[in-house]
Write a structure and sequence with these properties.
It is a single chain. The chain is an alpha/beta fold. The protein has one domain: Rossmann fold (3-Layer(aba) Sandwich). The chain has an 8-stranded mixed sheet, with helices on both faces. The two termini are 34 Å apart.
């Protein structure tokens, strides 16, 4: 596999550096396989993270023949102060830009999003065609009891501190801007309205050990999606929020689950063999 550099990607990278991204791991990326299968996968990271969060999965999928594009959401890979000035409309624009860039390489595009990235994929799927979408730790409600009040609390307190393991400090912020949580609340309300328009095949995956979001709200999202081809997969308490993290003991099983879904709905699959309902 190789890292593909195109004028459009170079423009996104240049913009990211202008916004304060200093580490290459936090830049958007495009990976092309040695033998392409004709399909692409758009990968969208979560809140306070960066494209680095999705890069191991991208490497795995590229090895299977998928062209992969990892987007960078504005305010990520820079600083919590930068994120505190961003709006969810900017995140949606970045996801659409990544989609349009990937579409220059293939018209058959899947989406994989983690947490907030999963919600952004649902919003994208209401505007652009997707072969299917894989929503990792999706939600419609954050677990913290004060999260619904973030719109008011952001004027009193700028950030919420959280512990981050030393090995993850290069990927995640140790402070969450409450303005950003307010933007997530706005995005959740929009996704509730848009979900009924999204008919792409969908795989939703959560773990009951998630301490960040309300897992039951993921099931609410599952029911809002009108697709006849959808699956809700729930891991046990040993699996937390960041499903792509190396410390997820079920990550190999997750990768196999993702591979199965992608192969099932890839266009080379004989339509007559696709399930009529899940």
């Amino acid at each position: 596999m190789t890292t593909k550099h195109t004028p459009q990607l170079e423009l996104l990278i240049s913009q990211a550096r202008q916004h304060g991204v200093r580490h290459d791991d936090h830049l958007p990326f495009l990976l092309t396989p040695a033998k392409a299968n004709g399909c692409g996968v758009l990968l969208v990271h979560g809140f306070t993270a960066s494209p680095r969060e999705m890069e191991p999965l991208a490497q795995f999928l590229t090895g299977l023949g998928f062209t992969t594009m990892g987007v960078r959401l504005p305010g990520h890979g820079t600083s919590p102060e930068d994120l505190a000035m961003r709006h969810q409309e900017e995140w949606q624009q970045a996801v659409e830009e990544g989609y349009l860039l990937l579409r220059q390489h293939t018209r058959k595009i899947f989406g994989v999003g983690l947490s907030t990235g999963a919600l952004l994929l649902v919003a994208l799927a209401a505007r652009q065609p997707l072969q299917g979408m894989i929503l990792l730790s999706p939600f419609l409600r954050v677990k913290h009891r004060l999260a619904p009040a973030a719109g008011l609390l952001r004027f009193i307190r700028k950030h919420q501190s959280r512990p981050v393991a030393p090995e993850l400090a290069a990927t995640y912020y140790d402070r969450r801007p409450l303005h950003g949580v307010h933007q997530i609340n706005r995005l959740c309300r929009q996704v509730r309205r848009l979900a009924g328009q999204v008919t792409a095949p969908a795989l939703l995956v959560n773990g009951t050990g998630d301490q960040t979001v309300r897992v039951d709200s993921s099931l609410d999202l599952f029911h809002l999606l009108p697709s006849r081809h959808k699956v809700f997969h729930l891991y046990g308490p040993e699996v937390g929020h960041t499903l792509t993290a190396p410390d997820n003991p079920r990550r190999p099983e997750l990768y196999a689950l993702i591979q199965h879904f992608l192969e099932l709905w890839s266009p080379q699959q004989d339509d007559s063999s696709a399930p009529s309902e899940t």
